[in-house]
What does this fold into?
Amino acid sequence: MSKLSFSVLLKILLVSISIQTFSQSKNHLLLRQNIEKAITASRAKVGVGIIGLDFTDSLTLNNEHHYPMQSVYKFPLAIAVLHQIDQGRHSLNEKIHITHKSLDTATWSPMLKDFPAQDIDLTLRDLLIYTVSKSDNNACDVLFRVAGGTKTVNNYIHRLGIQKIRITATEAAMRQKWEVQYTNWCQPDAMLQLLKKFYKGELLSKSSRDFLMKIMTESENSPKRIKGLLPANAVVAHKTGTSNTNKEGITAATNDIGIITLPDGRHVALVVYVSDYRTGVASGEQVIAQIARLVWDYYTEK
It folds into this structure.
């Protein structure tokens, strides 16, 4: 090949790469703008994180705020418990005795409805399913006791190199005072890091990773959030979080974090925290669903 023809070919290649990069950047800008429109319309504090798990792409919006996680923190709790199981400190089949008097009868607890007015013996497998798939608050606090408390779980997450997340209060503690829920906070990029490490198998054995992925995919958590506007057959492994609405009409948290399987087999992690707004949980769910659909369309229409 002559020097001239090689030079021409190189220029054509560089121009092609530049056009492709510009096109991708422009699309990324459009995705950001559309998400920002949804956020503005919500009149809430909304944090968003997006990252490709088996491809390179990422985006965060309003990442600097400390968003109250509510039950989203049951995902890192489950990872911490499964890590201890992988270490041989516990097993999925280990039975935990739970006295009825130790349970909060006023909190969200499908477990309590399944076993009313009685002491219970459940395996750690069952407790993880109740905690993650059914978002049971009593089961969550039992798992915190098994794991060694909120401080132990928090320190474990920090040792993974994920610092912008704080786990300090149990479900029971959060019920005592409105402000306590804000001590369990996370920035979107921190949860993205945890989701990516989990997905890539860097945290748990394959069996533990597969088990947690399964119970997140089979979740009974609200289908009106990440899954709300996606195709009915879309596969999403996720964990929601929801606060009460106080007497001033403020909802502190309507959240969803998860892993979306795209039609081409790729996976993208999505984190959406909707915080401190006055229009009710349904409107918070709607903005999460809108953002998830924007993400879906962006990665499926390229």
Observations:
- DSSP finds ten helices and nine strands in the chain.
- The first strand starts at residue 45 and ends at 52.
